[in-house]
Design a protein that fits this description.
Blueprint lengths: L7 H16 L5 H8 L3 H13 L3 E3 L5 E3 L1 H31 L2 E7 L5 E7 L14 E2 L5 H7 L23 H14 L2 E4 L6 E9 L5 E10 L5 H21 L12
Antiparallel strand pairs: 1-2, 3-4, 3-8, 4-5, 6-7, 7-8
Helix pairs in contact: 1-3, 2-3, 4-7
Length: about 260
């Protein structure tokens, strides 16, 4: 029989959270204590920590209610699961066609490029990432593909740190790079993040024309020649459009916006 490990404080936290989510109403400390049979002192400490982290807010009546932050976290997880599941077949097809590692990524809360999933190249020399790993967005092909269509001004908040001799660190040049992505439909990383690694990335849109993620092809520079990258660009933009349609995007919509 497996050993049971208990964390009483964590159990109480989840009891409080689940109660507040299920009933979607405000509670006083005393009400929470009575409903859950937890000491008022314990409830007070837990609620104050939740308030400090902006998961609950105190109302004018002195009760506590959940903030949208908890729903935001849930929706972000749901979005990522949907993205991963919807893209699996397309990533496999793209990797089979190009023989390179194919990835899918979003921007995380710090505006880094966060890898959600990958299909690894079958070749002996290849690029391998790790789902959950993040990279600086300004030198990532997938990151640039997302930023090119971002409407919230994220590009203004990035620090263009020099990663290699090819990294774009001039802001005006970087903006021109993003404008070019809009013109051609895909972004490139010409050894800007790692020496010897080249990538291309294409944006994936949703039904409301917002970018939901980007897919990318990454491989060693001796194989990712400009000629091969041009060939791969046709494949990746085609697959990005296929994935966009799964999110409800209608081809040609972007020409009608902005």
């Amino acid at each position: 029989m497996a050993t049971e490990y208990k964390a009483p404080a964590v159990e109480k936290l989840f009891d409080i959270l689940e109660l507040m989510v299920e009933n979607n109403c405000t509670y006083s400390l005393i009400e929470l204590s009575k409903r859950l049979k937890i000491s008022t002192n314990s409830v007070f400490r837990i609620i104050k920590e939740m308030e400090h982290r902006n998961y609950v807010v105190r109302t004018l009546e002195g009760t506590y209610e959940l903030t949208p932050k908890i729903y935001y976290l849930g929706s972000k997880i749901s979005d990522r699961i949907d993205v991963v599941n919807l893209s699996k077949g397309i990533l496999k097809e793209l990797s089979a066609t190009t023989k390179e590692t194919v990835l899918i990524a979003v921007l995380d809360e710090k505006y880094n490029t966060l890898v959600l999933n990958q299909v690894i190249s079958p070749l002996s020399v290849k690029f391998i990432s790790t789902p959950g790993m993040s990279y600086p967005t300004h030198c990532s092909a997938m990151g640039k593909a997302i930023l090119a269509y971002d409407k919230s001004g994220i590009a203004d908040k990035l620090e263009l740190t020099k990663m290699t001799g090819s990294t774009i660190t001039d802001y005006e040049e970087f903006i021109r790079e993003l404008e070019n992505v809009q013109r051609v439909g895909f972004a490139s990383d010409m050894e800007e993040s790692f020496e010897g690694l080249r990538c291309i990335g294409a944006p994936v849109f949703s039904f409301n024309n917002n970018v939901v993620c980007a897919i990318g092809i990454s491989g060693p520079s001796f194989r990712m020649t400009r000629e091969n990258m041009k060939s791969h660009s046709f494949e990746i933009t085609k697959k990005a459009l296929e994935l966009s349609k799964l999110f409800g995007y209608k081809e040609g919509d972007m020409n009608e916006t902005d």
